[in-house]
Structures are given as structure tokens and as C-alpha cells.
Amino acid sequence: QQNGRVVTAEADELIASFIEGNKALTAAFEIMQQLQDYPEAALRISIHAGEPVTQSDKLFGDTVQLLKRMNSFQREQTIIMTSGIKELLEPELLQKEPNSIRFCSPKEEA
Asked: Which CB contacts under 8 angstroms, 24+ apart, belong to 102-106?
């Protein structure tokens, strides 16, 4: 629905690519909504903005590693995002589920 593209899917992990950050966050909210009746799903969503995955395999590898590291962070929120994506998102969208979102610190992103 949000024009995402599945890049990889392994076991209980899926990596998708979106053209726009707003579409990625909207998709995250839709996934949360669909899985709200399944608390055992232990859903964790990480969102990062970067170069298109088709332009650089190395960058894509770095991006995958960052997202995997973000998913391992202890947190109460379902969605964690890198700090740089905040400026790319519509403020109204960020307010939709504010208690479900956490932004990484620059130290966590390094």
C-alpha cells in the first residue's frame, strides 16, 4: 500500500525499502495496527534514511548493519529511527503515535 519493496526476508526479519520516509513510517503504523492483537509478535521496527540500495552495495551493507544494531537496542517503543530522518517526516505523522517512536542518539548511530 505504501509502495515499499522487500529487499530481504529471513526468518523473523524483513528489510524493506521506501522512496519516502513518510511512507515508511505510515507502513510501520499499519503493521503495528495489524499486529496489535498479537502481543507475542514482539514487533520491532527500525527506520533509517540513506542512499538508494541499488546505488552502492557497501552502503547498503552498512545500512543493514545499522538497522540490525538498532533492532537490538533495549527500548519500550516499537519504532526506532535515526536522527536524520526526523527532518524528512511530516510533523503531523510523527504525532500520530508519539509514544511508539524513539529517535537514536548520534552516539548510537556511530
From this structure: 102/75, 102/76, 102/77, 104/70, 104/73, 104/80
pLDDT at 53 over 70: no
For cell 510501520, what's the residue? 28
Instruction: Identify whether the C-beta of residue 47 lies closer than 8 Å to the C-beta of residue 25.
Output: yes
- pLDDT tens for 25-44 read 999 999 999 988 988 888 88
Pull the grid cell for residue 87: 527532518
Alpha helices in the chain (DSSP H): 21-34, 57-72, 91-94, 106-109
Most confident of 5-9, 50-54, 84-88: 84-88
Q: How far apart are CA 63 and CA 77, in angstroms?
A: 21
Q: What is the dihedral of CA 38, 109, 102, 45, to 10 degrees?
A: -20
DSSP 94: H
